[in-house]
Every structure is written in structure tokens, then in C-alpha cells.
Amino acid sequence: MPSNRVLTGSRAMVEAIAHEMRADPKVLVMGEDVGAYGGIFSSTTGLLDEFGEERVRDTPISETAFIGAGVGAAMAGMRPIVELMFVDFFGVCMDAIYNMAAKNTYFSAGHCKVPMVLMTATGGGYDDGGQHSQTLHATFAHLPGMKVVAPSNAYDAKGLMTSAIRDDSPVLYMFHKGLQGLAWMAAPEGASAEVPEESYTIPFGEARVAREGSDVTIVAISMAVHHALAAAEALAKEGADAEVIDLRSLVPLDREAVLRSVAKTGRLVVVDEDYRSFGLTAEVITSVVETDPGLLKSAPRRVAFPDVPIPYARPMEQFCLPDPGKIQAAVAQTLGKVPA
Amino acid sequence: MPSNRVLTGSRAMVEAIAHEMRADPKVLVMGEDVGAYGGIFSSTTGLLDEFGEERVRDTPISETAFIGAGVGAAMAGMRPIVELMFVDFFGVCMDAIYNMAAKNTYFSAGHCKVPMVLMTATGGGYDDGGQHSQTLHATFAHLPGMKVVAPSNAYDAKGLMTSAIRDDSPVLYMFHKGLQGLAWMAAPEGASAEVPEESYTIPFGEARVAREGSDVTIVAISMAVHHALAAAEALAKEGADAEVIDLRSLVPLDREAVLRSVAKTGRLVVVDEDYRSFGLTAEVITSVVETDPGLLKSAPRRVAFPDVPIPYARPMEQFCLPDPGKIQAAVAQTLGKVPA
Amino acid sequence: MQPSKEQLLWMYAVMAKARYYEDTMAQAYMEGKSPKFDIGAGPVPGEMHLAAGQEPCAAGVCVHLRRDDTVTATHRPHHVAIAKGVDLNKMTAEIFGKRTGLAGGRGGHMHLFDPATNFACSGIIGESAGPATGAGLAARLQGTDAVAVAYLGEGAANQGAFHEALNLAALWQLPVIFVIEDNAWAISVAKDKSTAVADNSLRAKAYDIPGVHVADNDTLELFKVAGKAVKRARAGGGPTLIEVETYRYYGHFQGDPEVYRPKDEVSGLKARDPILRLRKHMLGKTDIREAEVEQALAKARAEVDAAFEFARKSADPAPEDALQHVFA
Amino acid sequence: MQPSKEQLLWMYAVMAKARYYEDTMAQAYMEGKSPKFDIGAGPVPGEMHLAAGQEPCAAGVCVHLRRDDTVTATHRPHHVAIAKGVDLNKMTAEIFGKRTGLAGGRGGHMHLFDPATNFACSGIIGESAGPATGAGLAARLQGTDAVAVAYLGEGAANQGAFHEALNLAALWQLPVIFVIEDNAWAISVAKDKSTAVADNSLRAKAYDIPGVHVADNDTLELFKVAGKAVKRARAGGGPTLIEVETYRYYGHFQGDPEVYRPKDEVSGLKARDPILRLRKHMLGKTDIREAEVEQALAKARAEVDAAFEFARKSADPAPEDALQHVFA
Ligand SMILES: Cc1ncc(C[n+]2csc(CCOP(=O)(O)OP(=O)(O)O)c2C)c(N)n1
Ligand SMILES: Cc1ncc(C[n+]2csc(CCOP(=O)(O)OP(=O)(O)O)c2C)c(N)n1
Ligand SMILES: [Mg+2]
Ligand SMILES: [Mg+2]
Tell me, what's the ipTM? Predict the structure, then answer.
């Protein structure tokens, strides 16, 4: 693969969508500002020009209607990709998502399929306040019937999107704004990646070992993977060798990958930008201890957003967000370096 | 207290509401069929007759509007009690709940208060299908800014409702249909209870030891408490002495009570009617092990609804629901009686 | 536009079948639930919303539909499912929660899904509007002249989903017909306690589409109105909103104490029963013979009896099958 | 109904203050964000939606309001907050994310809450409608003649919350005025690509309430229309829906590439600037003297400059204070 193929997350997403739209006339895109604007977070840049207004549809601010329409179109043989601009807006349209898209397959014993991708922007760190900065991984992963994916880099972004579009079940595709490589928002090094031009898929439920290590397992997803990797580098200098697991999807959840790693390291830190309680961190930790609490040589730690709405002022939001420093501190605790 | 004061859950709720309405003209009730019908699950029986149409308001099927109106009325000095008929319907109005009611206090640094009670019916077991049988505890407990309570008996139902109405923060009051003591739906013995005539409060975040025991801790909430108690009785016959903790509220969550009990028993089973993954069971288990994994002598177990939509047919729904037998089996595993 | 003899007989048969279906279901549902009503007992699980009295809404619209047209119905779906041609055995078995049901008992009375006839329904008020709009969009993108019909109760016309879907369908000029079954009640809440306008068809003005009101549960009038709307939609003329004044004979659900409505309301309505009125019309105003009508009636009843027989005889699902079909 | 001299001067001062506020904010916002725009840099955090051009919507309505009346605004709230009398220092400090802000920096630009003036706003489209309806209900239950005003953009008129709240307010005849600021755009989506009717005031028919359209961003016309609506609401006459044709000078948010709108659109709009038109009216058609106008202008600008000064000088919040005030 030519090394000039380093793409941003958004370019990678768009490439996957465009490829599927070329290959399959049943694929269409709907959402607010997905046309001329190209998606507020550049998730649809250029699609209108190539595919036209019939297949790339700007919608009114009517999430209940256009996501419901996505379900209806999917059941009628189309493969809609629908954008919910910010995941924070789920509250105005959750019924169409969790009670319809996610359940119609079950209610019909699989006789009806809902091959819809709902893509939505997540995450904070750029001071956008409490209704535009949430992650809400667990809000969706807790409810049955949706596959839930959250890529951490451009390579996965393309492969997971291709898999999502080809999946006959509804897939919630959660992309972190800070990983899109937008000209106007800082992104971590490593969010952009070499991306093959040809189409490829990444299976759901297969975590990726982002960094091998032997002393402690750091489990993360989406943006948190980059914080985990940065922490691991810093820890290496202190002589601690951390393994970093990128879950890539919440549903299905690759519990085996976590167990394999913890069986090796005996120590566990789980990092998530979503709210702390009743979230991903608890699910991962419980998945380990319910299998065998003996695997853990020390108390597991979670690094997540505290149970408070997301504050607007930078110092307060940064205080709450996971970051490499907080992860290092948590790892240090699991290593018994500091009092828990 | 006269022993002829054994009330059903619904009677106890209504008594608390009526008492507060008499004491405080700011309290009103809004929702679908809360007037002449008295609430589909008898949560408002008789209130219309006593307080009239201005304070007991039947609404259109417009949850977004009337819950949003509840928020506005609360911020304008009223103390609305709003009913969402089934918790399953949250999808059409979650924005008003989690983005407004739950966040306006924070967004105003407490200068604005939202003293609203949102009461809603939860739970299955009577074959009502996948859009009318959910529990969804974690869906609300995961999101900051709401207190979330779920009584298991009439005594708690009254005390928690009184506390909820008097609280200056939004409170989600989740009552299980099967605990209401409805003439047309079976309820477990123990759901009805002796209830003092006079008004009293129960603080949020204080779990109740429903049964003392020394061998294993069974943590539950709402309907699951009754399954846990039944399992404990059966286990006693087999010589296992189970302690049953009724959490009573999810937010705040009484982690200390769980830790105290597990410190004594060394074994943990968590029971919840809500979906299994990313839920209450994982949060409780993690709260223990992140404090000290050494507390556990065996792998903790969860008994919860599997990650599938709720099936309609009785044999399939019963297969999925927590029950005493499943809890006994889980306890047996923690006691090492059977291979995990 | 006058219905042909075949259309009249078809509508009559559908309405008679739907009526007999609901009356039969009312009986079956109460088995094991009386004398003391216990929702968790008896052969028929769950809640039960019956549509006796509302048959015109089903027959008068679906008579104009093809198999490839989509219908999304409500929590009160039986009459519409029957009119759309959903397999009566599988549907009844589903309502009985049996292995042979449309979804093997996973969905149930409020969740009848039949890809063979493009029929679906839902237990959430207003949920029919979005998917019908999407089916209309699919037809347009697939280049067919199929249409979609969304059924809603008059109570649903105050749900946000109704507004959003009508605007979207009108904006995109999609082939969707929105049919409001105004049975005057949303559980215990009367229309004038829920809706700021007396007639929901007025709301079509908010979307610049045709809105038509059909009074007095009139099958023949609805036949005309719906025929025009379907024709218009097929021709690319966009959506229509129709409100039908209809009657609800049973309670909101079986077991409804009905404390909220006057005891004599239903008897008053039954005096204008739409099936009897249609029969009267057929025998009085057309050359249809009583024998033909009786034959249609007998056939309809036989099919219903057979369906209940099939459902009762069918096996329960295996409990552990609850775990299947979460994903495609 | 003609505005008094005081009312004219008040509206002019509010509009001039709002305009100067937005222009000043536009500058401050870009500090540290140019040459390369980085949303996370500079003294002003987050997104920034400015309302320059939309001042009539704020002044022409709020001139009729009292302190005890409630206003719920949108994600584009500054002009309305200023018209309602929100403390400019605290508001600006909040937008700068400072400790001295309305909420100590927890809320920010889209979440300005001021119990002193009963003002609130929100970042979710349509979220203003429900709470205003509730404030109207509270006024009625408390026996006062206070009213509530909900602001919405024209794009919000297609959100379910809009429909539900209008029906509820109309049904209960609550003292609520719904004001749609039609600035022709919802981010990049033009009104005719989002809304099936050209004029949202038509939608009042769906709720049997008065609907009024105010053309061409006309402050004086809106003054009349809003005055009537507020009077009606105070008198128990129920809600009114008003759509105001207004202008958006800046992009949707600062940093908006505006690829979607013709380059000359804004210059065309500015030729009809509502503040200049109001000034012309005051000087031409009333006995208000230029000196009075200039004085009002100078005072407004001084207040804005002082507020920015206050905000810039104020301290950042303590990071750990993020954990406070989740509950009352
Ligand atoms: C979003 C939502 N809110 C409330 C309910 C509970 N509910 C079920 S049927 C019903 C009344 C519906 O009235 P209408 O739309 O007129 O239909 P009808 O029952 O009269 O056929 C209500 C409130 C629901 N299922 N979904
Ligand atoms: C429910 C919801 N959907 C989408 C958005 C994203 N969004 C923010 S502003 C906006 C456009 C709003 O247009 P309009 O209502 O006309 O107000 P304007 O920006 O023109 O003042 C959109 C789509 C949102 N904040 N909330
Ligand atoms: Mg009805
Ligand atoms: Mg606009």
C-alpha cells in the first residue's frame, strides 16, 4: 500500500461509504447537513457531488422522522446510512433507534431485516458544553439489538464502516469528533493512518492489541485508546510494560481478548470517555472477575468521566476527561506503586 | 401503627402524593390517564376527585411536551409529579428527561432547581412484549443529574415518594407493575406492607438489609428483591444463609452497604430484571472489586435479563426473567457447590 | 368513484372477518382470566386491543392496495392486518404466542411483522409514521409506484413523530397516506381533552397536503377518499392525510373498567354498525344477492375458526429459543 | 399600537447593544483561533452562534415583557438574553467560561440560565417549547398574569417538540407566545429544503390559535403583533404563534465555511439592516433627537465593553469545582 495513503478518520469513513454506494444502489445517506455541507464532522464530504440529491439527502431537523424513515427504507430493501449529528441528540429520537431499529429483527424472528447504519459523532475536549460533548457508549450498548462500534483510527474507521454497511443488522457507528482529523479540531497523532485504497472489512467483536505488554492491561475504546497508548509510552520510561487493548466494538464485546491479556498481566485498568457509573468500565471489569477473580493481582481501576454533566469551561472539562496522566496514576495503583 | 394498615404499593404511592398535595399547593400531577382512570397502574387513584382537574391533569400523548412542561413548571416554582406510563416509552421523550430535567441544575450552578418527580412503570412477567415490559434501570442511572429510586414494597414506596416530592432535584421514581398490588396482576407476598398513616421519608442512597445472612450476599432492587428473598428461604433449607440487600435507589447507590455485607460473607450475587450487560449487576460487582478484590472468596455472579429484547410468549419470557431458581443456582456456584 | 361488485364483496368479507376475529379473540382472551381478571393467565398472553367497530378504516383503504404496498399499523392492528392479507393462521398463532406464529411468539399482538404482505405494527404511539415514510422513500428510489399507508389513532396525532413524518413526506412528496382512526378515545382521554382542533384533517394545512375528513365511519365514503389518495400517491402526487370518524366497541384493552365513558355510548354506536350498513347497501343498492353475502360471511368465519384452531393446536416455543434472532 | 418614545428608545438600545455584543464577541472568539481555526483554542470556549441581524426578534417581543415573564431561547441566545435583561457581566463571564459567570462556567454560551430574569436557553433544537409551556402552566396555577415566550428557529418548527408543545399550550389555553426566528437557514439547510410550508405561521391552524407572519425583519410590525399576543395571553386568551422573517449576518457558527449560501446574500440583507431602519424611523417619524439616539448607543456600547472587560479579568473556575452542583 502506497505510503501516501495516510488518511484522516473522516476521509476513511467517506471512502468506505462512497465505495459501497458505487457497488450497491441500495445504499443511501440521510441526515442534517450531509449534502452541500458534507457533514458537520466531514463524514459525508463529496458524496453529494458524486451521488446526487436522491441518494445523499439533507433532512429537516426531524430525527424521529428520518431515523424512522431509515428503518422503513431498510425494511423495504434499502441500506440507509443515517447520521445523527451529535450522539447527545439521541434523546429526541431514541424510540426509533432502540424500540424499532433494534427490535424489529427480533419481533419478526429475523424475517424482517433492518440493515441500517446510524452514524453519530461523540466526545468532548473542545469545550462544547453538556449537550454537545457526551460519549454515551453504554447508553446504546446496554440495549439489545444494535451492534455498536467505535473506531480509534482511520484504518479501523474504514473497515468498520464497510462492515457496518454490509451488515444486515442495525449498526450504531460512533465516531469521535477528535479522531476525524478535522482542520479545525486537534486530533491525536495516530488517529490518521495508512488506509488501503481497496475496500476491506473488519469483523465486529474482535479487539485489537494496540500495544503489547506484560505488566498491566489497559482496555480502552475510541479516543481513550490514544490516551492509553500515550500513558503506556510514559510508563515504559518508568519501566512498566503496559498492554493496550482497543475494543473497537462494544456490541459484540470481545471479552476473550481482555481475559487473555489479563491472564498474562494480572492487572487491569479500563478507560472510557463515557460517564463512569453503569458504563463500559464496569462491564469490562465484571467480565473478568465473574470468570475468575483470581486473575487479578491487584484491584482493577477505571478511568472515566465522573458522574457529572460535561462542564463548558476548559479547566473543568479537562479535569473530568480521561488523559494519559490519570491513566498512569491508575496503572501505578494497580502496580501497588501508590496507595489505592 | 394499626395492623389494618397493610397497603398495596399503589395505595402507598397515592397516599404519599395526596399528603404532599394537601400540604403543598405547588404539587401537581400530570400524565396520560392520571385523571378519571386513576393511572393505568393505579398510581393516581382518587387524586382527581380530591384535587380536581387543575392539579391532576390528563395530558395528550405528547411526552416530550408534558415532561418538558414539567421542567418549566418546576423551574417556575411548582413541584410537578409527571407520569411516563411505561418506562419503555422513554425513547420519545428522553431529551426532556436527561438533557433538560437532569442538567438544568448543573448548567445553572444550582441557581435554577428542577423539583420534578417523574414516575414510571417498569418490569415484565405478564407477557406484555418487548415494548411494554422493560426495566431500564441502568439507562437512567448511567446519566448524571437524576436521582433514581425503585421501591420493592409498599412501605418504601410511600417513604421514597414523599422524599422524591420534597427533593429539589429531579427524581426518577421507577415502580414495578408487579409490585403495585393491582387486582388484575399477580404480586409477590411482601409487596404489600404495613404502612403508617402519617407521612414519613426514606433517604435516598440507603440500602436496606432485607434479610440477614452470613454465607453469601444477594444484592437486588425492585421486584428482584422478592426473588432474592424467596431464593434465600430455599437456600436456608439447604443450610446456606444468604443476606439480601435491597438497594432501594440506583442513584445514589449505597456501595458501602454492599461492601459491608460482602466483607462479612465473601460471596456476591447481584440480581436485576434489567438487561444484563452494561447494567446494575456490573456496577455493583465492580464497586466491590475495585475496592478490594480480596473480599471475594469466589467469582461473583449476576442474574439478569439476557441481552435480548423481551419476548412475548410466556415460556420464552419466563426463561429470561430472573427467578428464585436462577438465583439459587448462582448462589450455589459462589459457594462452589457446582462448577461455575 | 364507486366500488365494483367485487370490491364491495371484498370489503364486506374483510370487515366481517375482522369483526368475527375480534369477537372470537375477546372470548379466547378471557379464558383463564375470569372470573377474576388476571392479565398473566390464560391461553392468550399480554394486553389485548380490539378494533371491533373500526373495520371501515381497514377495508376502505386496503381495498386499494397491492401486496407490494406497505402498511404500518398501530397497537390495535388486527383489522388492518386482515385487510392487508396477513396469513391468518400465523398471525393468530403469534397472538397466542406459539411456535408457528409470524415470529414464533417473540413479537405478539402489538408486533405483527409480515414481509410477505409488507405489514408491520408497533406498540409505541406514533411509531407507524416514520417507517411508512421510509417505505415511500424506498419505492421512489427503487422506481416503483408502490405506496405506503401509516395508520394512527386520533391520540397519536399529538405525538411529535406524527408532525415530523408528515412534514418529511410532504417535503419529499413521497407516496404515503396517513390514516387517522378517530375512535374518540385515547384510553380514557377524550379527543377534545387531547387535541386543540376538532378535526385532525385540518392539520394537513401545516404540510400543504390534502386533508380529508370522513364522517360517521362511512365505508363507501372512505373508499372514495382513499382511492383518490392512493391514486395520487402512485402518480407521484405526494401524501394525503385522512381522518376517519370511527367507533370503538370494546374497551381500550380487554379488562378496561371504562369508568371514563358513558355506559350507553357503545349501544348508540352499534345502532349505526358499519358492517350492517354496508350489507344494507349491497343488498339494497346493488345486484349483489343475499346468498353471495352469506357465502362471504360463512367463508370469513370459517377462516377465522380455522386460524384459532391452528393457533390453539400449535406448540409452545422452546423457552431457550428466546435467545435467537436478536440479530439478522 | 404604536410604540411610545420610551419603547422606541428601549428597543433601539437593546438592538444596538445586541449587535455590538455579537460583533465584539465575533472578534474575541477568533482570538487564538486564527490564522488556523482551532475550536479548542483562545479565550472563548466552544461553539459560537451569533445573532447579528436578528435583533428585532428580541427587542420587538421582549419590550412587552416583565421580569416575572419567562423566556426560553435557543442555541443562538445572546440577543434575546440581552433583551430580557440578563446581567451582561455574568452572561459574558459565563460565555468566557469564568468563575464569575451565571453558572461559574458550567453552562456556557448555549446554556445561559438566569432566575433573576426568568431566562433560559438550550443547545437542543426545539427544547425551548416545552419549558415555556410549563412556565405558562405555572403562571396559571399560581394565579398570576405572567406569560412565557419560547423562541425557535425556523428549522426547529419541524421538530416534534414544537408540535407537541403548541398543541398542549393551545389545548390548555396557556399564556405562551411561540416566536419563530426565520433566518432562512438551519445551518446549511434552506427553509424550502426543510419545511413543507413556506410560512410556519400557517401551522397555527393545526392548533386553532392565531398565527401571524412578520415580513422583512420589521421591528415596528413585530412590536404590534407581539404586543397583541402578549396582551391576549395575559388576559387568558391563550397562545399565539409568530414567525418573523429575519436575517443571519454571520455563519451558522463562527468558523462556518458557508459553502452553501450565495456570497452576496448577506450584503443584500445588510442593505436593509433593521437597526438602521429603526433609527431612520425614530429620527424621521418621531420627535426623538439624534443626540438621544447617540446617547443610547454610547451607553449600550459602554455596557458591552465593560462586560467583556469584566469577563476577561475574571478568574477561571477551579478545575475540581466541576464536581459541584450536579444536584440541588
Ligand atoms: C409513546 C407512547 N405513549 C403512550 C403509550 C400508551 N398508550 C397505548 S395506546 C394509547 C392510546 C392511544 O390512543 P389512540 O392513538 O387514539 O389509539 P386507540 O387506542 O384509540 O386505537 C396510549 C396512551 C404508548 N404506547 N406509546
Ligand atoms: C435535536 C437537535 N438536532 C440537531 C441539532 C444540531 N443543530 C444545531 S443548530 C441547528 C440548526 C438550527 O436551525 P434553526 O432552528 O433555524 O436555528 P438557527 O440556527 O437558524 O438560529 C442544528 C441542526 C441540535 N442542536 N438539536
Ligand atoms: Mg383513539
Ligand atoms: Mg434558521
Answer: 0.98
